[in-house]
Amino acid sequence: MRPPYLLLDADGVFIPFPNAEGAGPETHTRHDVVPTGRTADNPVTIWLNPAHGPLLRHVIRTGLVTAVWCTSWRQDATTLIGPLLGLSPLPHVDLPRPQITTSQPNGYLWKRDHVDAWLGDAPAVWIDDDFTELDHEWARERTARGEATALVQPDPRVGLLAEHLVEVLAWAALLPTARADAWCVACEAKGA
């Protein structure tokens, strides 16, 4: 059986929102990148934590999850963000480009319907900073139907923390698809 998907948002997760002065956390390094549709004279400034690459590579190496970008950066997450973190290319959910003014136009995260169709009945743990209670209800309903689903929601001004990835590993280790030693892997990541 295939391991669950680990769906990875970028903004608010790997790229925390800047503070009032326009800077990222001290743990993060500034990068100017040129996403699709931009030119070199109009880059986007992002802040990435160099520790995230090794942490995520560890999670991927456990084999407990299959990492996939699930971000409005789409393919640019693989070609721009991933390499800055030292990640091998990851697939991405091919999200549409909706004309919306809020990330929750129907009271829940705009990506959710697209992700639900993309996942089918596959299990998934999704890291995104923008879930609402309706998204958490959706995850509970999927899980009740036998489609194990967990949501991890970092603070968008802080971004991803090591404990979020420990939570991912602990959740994945409890699934029937997990290897027998998976719980030990999750404990090792936590330092237990």
Note the main attributes of this structure:
192 residues; four-stranded parallel β-sheet; alpha/beta; 6 helices
Q: What is the overall shape?
A: globular
Largest sheet: 4 strands, parallel
Indicate the proportion of strand residues. Answer: 5-15%
Tell me roughly what share of residues is in helical segments: 25-40%
* Oligomerization status of the protein chains: single chain
Number of strands: 6
> Biggest sheet: strands side by side, in what order?
4-1-5-6
Intertermini distance: 28 Å
**Contiguous helical run count:** 6
Order of helices and strands: EEEHEHHEHEHH
Gyration radius from CA atoms, angstroms: 16 Å
- Look at the structure and give the mean pLDDT: 90
Category by helix and strand content = alpha/beta
Low-pLDDT segments, ≥5 res: 180-184
Explained architecture:
With 192 residues, the protein is α/β, with parallel strands linked by helices. The chain is built from six helices and six strands; from the N terminus they run βββαβααβαβαα. The strands form two sheets. Strands 4-1-5-6 form a four-stranded parallel β-sheet. The protein has a two-stranded antiparallel sheet with strand order 2-3. Helix 1 (52-61) packs parallel to helix 5 (162-173) and helix 5 runs antiparallel to helix 6.
Walk me through the topology.
Layout: E1 5-8, E2 29-33, E3 44-48, H1 52-61, E4 66-69, H2 75-85, H3 112-119, E5 124-127, H4 133-144, E6 149-152, H5 162-173, H6 182-190
Parallel strand pairs: 1-4, 1-5, 5-6
Antiparallel strand pairs: 2-3
